[in-house]
Amino acid sequence: MVVPESQDNQQPSSSSVGSSTSQQYRSNPSVSQHSESPQHFNSNGNISPVNTSLRYEPQEYTETDFLLPNQLYGRSSLSRSVTAKDAQGSGTPPETVCSMVLQILVPFLLAGLGTVSAGILLDVVQNWDVFQEITEIFILVPAVLGMKGNLEMTLASRLSTAVNTGKMESSREKWMLIVGNLALKQLQATVLGLLASLMATVLGWMAEGKMPFNHVVLLCSTSVSTAFVASLLQGIIMVAVIIGSKRMGINPDNVATPMAASFGDLITLALLACLSQWFYSFTDLYPHVLYLVDLLFLCLIPLWVVVSSKHPATHILLRTGWEPIITAMVISSIGGLILDKSVSDPNLAGIIVYAPVINGIGGNLVSIQSSRISTNLHLKFSPGEVPEDRKSCYNPCRTFFGSGANHRSAQILLLLVIPGQFIFLYTIHLMKGGHTFPSPLLTVAFLSASLIQVFSLLCIADCMVHCLWRRRKDPDSYSIPYLTALGDLLGTALLSLAFLMLWSIGDSGNV
């Protein structure tokens, strides 16, 4: 963070910093000694000169910077620097292992129940006419669910970081940030919904060798409508969760990202199934309805562009925020193709119940860790600056072994996998009637696939977030889409492999 050169701006406003703090910084020799050049706080809390060439360059990590000029809310740059540096003590509640476990556990269980319900729902709707007639919808399922999760979790991670770094204290500042992010999210949902349907069309055509045009139109209408409505509903819920967490003194990083996906998959999948069946009923009698639906959402795109571009925070993401979510959508679509092929094989049909569970839980856990690491970097380091132990070659042991809070959270998240997925596995069978239980081999195979998936994702997250920060890219916007998409691909691939192994040894798994 940068302290301006002018002496006038070095006097902190009394409304932001108390008199004792003002005296401390007036008498601090390090400030006066470096008054001719910009300053920043290093990882030890000391002030050191920084390169002035960075001062006016556009930065991709600034979407959580203050949205209003100093004059609008009476904060000098030095007081903002002090506030942001002290945010770890004031914005982020102190965490013990017990409090961390409790804060993570409740949203984790809620998210698990949501993904279990989504799996049961998918098992039911796979027999609907539209799913039987237009099998490319199975390719669309992981893409739309993953896209929804990416948008929700990046929103949650950005707002959580803004809360923890003290950048949502002003009411006007807070609502400008919220409105800008929601408008941006609706724009991204519309565009990605369209791209996801086109990706499903291309993959379906490559797999089957044909694709009727009416199927393409239905896929577009279903994908865009589902993405738009689900994004709007869950975006409002997410804002309420983060504001509520702040008021209750709970770290939003532990709560927001899993709550974003708690029943999000269920809501999104229900919308996808109902809208696709509804549009399917129109294809013969009222085909023009599908074209009107697509046209309506496309006409709203300029509105979202105008609203989001008026806010500096989201204006940057209009240019830089597309690469990760589009790439993630492509990766998730490949996972959807694997799911489509697995479902079409009668020997692997039971996989469809478990796919949303393993994909959703893996994405939720790694999103918590990614958000926590990102917040820590925002609080303690300047963009481009990383801890000393992250400057050498990556070692997976650094992810789990250490005394830091993020090491403890990685251990907790990994330890939650086995008991959590065990509970969810048996919950699935209870919700399906409870007359049979999964075989020991199915249980071992499912838990092993989940453990390998989450272990891999946590290691990738640790490496990816620090690499993005070193390249001056904001991890809140870049890392989560890649990680959740990789979670979808890894989860679906490992689960398909597990079921293939069970089938090869003659164990049906009681599915």
From TrEMBL:
GO cellular component, one term: plasma membrane
Domain SLC41A/MgtE integral membrane residue range list: 141-274, 356-497
Coiled-coil stretches: none
Entry annotated with the keyword Transport: yes
SUPFAM superfamilies: MgtE membrane domain-like
Region described as Disordered: spans on this chain: 1-49
Chain's role: Acts as a magnesium transporter.
Protein name, as recorded: Solute carrier family 41 member
Organism: Lates calcarifer (Barramundi)
High-level lineage: Eukaryota, Metazoa, Chordata, Craniata, Vertebrata
